[in-house]
Amino acid sequence: MTPIVPCVRRGLVAGSPRWEAAGVVHLRFSTLVQAPTTVAFDVARALGRPWRAPLQEVESRRPHRDVYAGGPGPRVVHTREFTATGAGTRVEELVDWDAGPLDQVVLRRRVVRAMRAHLDGYAAAAATRALDVVQVVGAAVVRGDRVLVAQRRGGAFDGRWEFPGGKVERGEHDLDALVRECQEELGVRVEPGAFVGEVVLDARIGGGPPGTSTMRVWAAGLVSGEPAAREHADLRWVGAGELAALDWIPADRPLLPAVRALLG
Predict the structure, then answer these.
(1) Which residues cross the membrane (predicted)?
(2) Which domain-ending residue is among 130, 160, 189?
């Protein structure tokens, strides 16, 4: 991920608490973490929640969502959702608790104070942990209504298709790595565009445990040069209707719906 000083952009989406007739108060917090979804999720789980009473797990879908709930005292339900973006992982946290009329203002202040302190520490910890995780970037190079695909040569996925790309070097920005990989693999200069998506990689990447690294893919346009298969067996420009018929490596196939959308 981007090698910058760990930071957090946070916000209370609603300027004031919202409660229903049953006395349930809702607060929502949004945090942008400089880490892939896997790291953001794992660090959040390791740090727990900033509540004195332990909560029980209700739902966990790594690396997208988890829900914890419990008491004693006012019942708390704490939901977190993790979404990949081009700038990192956006973490949305919704805190619901049961509160009587006399507790609403006092509890709100306590919850906001606890969450803000918690999110500062969490964002810094996740960004630091991300520096030790090897990431992979890919480019959906688009020209008109077609996208460039590359056929693997050698290895376990010999003959299967993928989007060009490779590993991000330590201290390298994701988009700088994408531009460098296209130059090395294809002999072209590209301009990164919209973020396409992120996929969790099951394999060990850079010696890390399986399921920690992700592949993050951006659309890209050709700036100069004509693609050449320097490291691949073959290259093709294909349209949206041809993508499904190719024999894709497992990591790239989940990105096909988003790539079709790029092609119109």
Answers:
(1) none
(2) 130
